[in-house]
Amino acid sequence: MRSRIRAIVCTCLLFLGSFSFSWSQEDPADLFVGVWELVEVSNIAGSMVKVHPGNYKIFGTDGSYHFMRVFPQGASYVQEGTFAVQSDSVYLERINWALIKQVEGKAHRLTYRLNENGTISIEGVGEIPFRETWRRVANYNTTSAAN
């Protein structure tokens, strides 16, 4: 009888433990959601070079993304589309609209890696192979700043 109760308790604990583990797992897309600023890109030789500030990618909770550039004269969208995380190292960008019309309607399989310093490295092979480093833009709450 005791071994039977022990088996039932162990089964329940195993079930509850696996349920709470899966419940606590975040959606992998949550890593992307927010505003990211481009800080480095690969040059023709493959070396990483710093980028002037003003290139932003905004990932939405609805699976959308917008890539925009900000200049002293104003801002413009470069491209927009949707994204879907396929694994812990691969995501897909589908380009719905772009300034460069040749890339519209295309999907790009990109690899990503979250770095220890909080930046994210992205690599892909679109029209040309590329590597980029993005840093998350701090979330600034304007409501609390006004108080």
Task: Provide the descriptors you would attach to this structure in a database record.
46% strand; single chain; globular; alpha+beta; 147 residues; 19% helix
Please render the helix and strand layout as text.
Layout: H1 2-24, E1 34-42, E2 48-50, E3 55-59, E4 64-71, E5 74-85, E6 90-98, E7 107-114, E8 120-125, E9 129-136, H2 142-146
Antiparallel strand pairs: 1-2, 1-3, 1-9, 3-4, 4-5, 5-6, 6-7, 7-8, 8-9
Question: How would you portray this structure in words?
Answer:
With 147 residues, the protein is α+β, with helices and mostly antiparallel strands. It contains two helices and nine strands; from the N terminus they run αβββββββββα. The protein has helices spanning 2-24, 142-146, and strands at 34-42, 48-50, 55-59, 64-71, 74-85, 90-98, 107-114, 120-125, 129-136. An eight-stranded antiparallel beta barrel has the order 1-3-4-5-6-7-8-9. The protein is globular and about 40 Å long. Residues 5-25 have low confidence and may be disordered.
